[in-house]
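With this grant's support, we have settled on a layout for protein records. A representative record follows, to show the layout.
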Amino acid sequence: MTALTDKQILLGVCGGIAAYKACDWTRALRREGAAVTVVMTEAATRFVAPLTFAALSGRKVYSAMFAADEAEQIPHIGLARQADAVLIAPATAHTIARLAHGLADDLLSTLVLATTAKVVVCPAMNSQMYRHPATQANLARLREYGYTIVEPACGTMACGEEGPGRLVEWEEARQAVLTALSRQDLAGLDVLVTAGPTREPLDPARLLTNRATGRMGYAVAAAARQRGAHVTLISGPSELPVPAGVELVRVTSAMEMHREVLSRAERMAVIVKAAAVADFRPKATTPSKVKKGKASLTLELAANPDILQELGAMKARSACFPLLVGFAAESGELRAEAQRKLTEKNLDLIVANDITAPDAGFAVETNRVLLIDRNGTETELSLLSKEETAHRIWDAVVTRQR
């Protein structure tokens, strides 16, 4: 189950070469449990047959404004009313102009006028067409109407030109749709999230690190952005894509993360410390690789600063410090350890999970967590995707802010 499960998504497909990508988007939406209804412009049917979208969506495909069958249902009104979100991709210069000027000369433009659902527009066209002042003015007007515009990617066009105008990848469009469907209960708040492991160098070839991938922290950052927050993500080394609209600050070591977090902390409304920061670092590093035959069997370690502990101490001294959320990745005594950290580090909320569980530890897509707030209220979450877990964490944060 995801945030798209059981949502009614109306996918508007326009007549551009990128129309074939909308086939994959339809399949991706259905994999997440969304009900997809495809509306094609007449030009779009020249690029992809309606039969293709019918097979992929499992639903009738609409294109004609005045189709003889089902005429009594008034398609542009019925479709507009049932949609939770309207996603237009690829959005051509022609359709963007229609929407900007309120035209109602085909089914897609008419139902957009009739819907109260959020509208997400993904432009795709030749670079010169995209840059043209008319197109830019039309996009600006759509933003004024409250439509979400997902800026196109740069690259090589089908025509051979280089520049902006390529249809974005599905994950970026997906984030825009999720934002459109999400409550904006974090709107305007500045949020800081940490994620990933840290790496503590021993020599140019070796380091100390841990198994964290950053999945949970990145999901927390993405969920906050979807709910309207301004998000800064301070991340240790991770191969995960940066969530759309999130400011990323990359760090490597615990000392770097300490510096970047503390320099921003007091400007935030909420801080979520999801990173797996190394507790120790080698006491000394060598400029050249330690040879196997000469290496000592003893590695001296120095303690890294406890960032969360320092934040909690700052909170104790301040009347208006950010709401502070910590994570406890444990391998035993989950509840007791979480309660101890909550109290000792002066947290508002702690998220605890058992890292020995194969479906809720490192490098998996799911999690099973225990939430405890400073009032002692406990909430046990069943096995959920990390994305859904992130939203449940923010639900708890929002409840504390009220």
The first helix runs from residue 21 to 31.
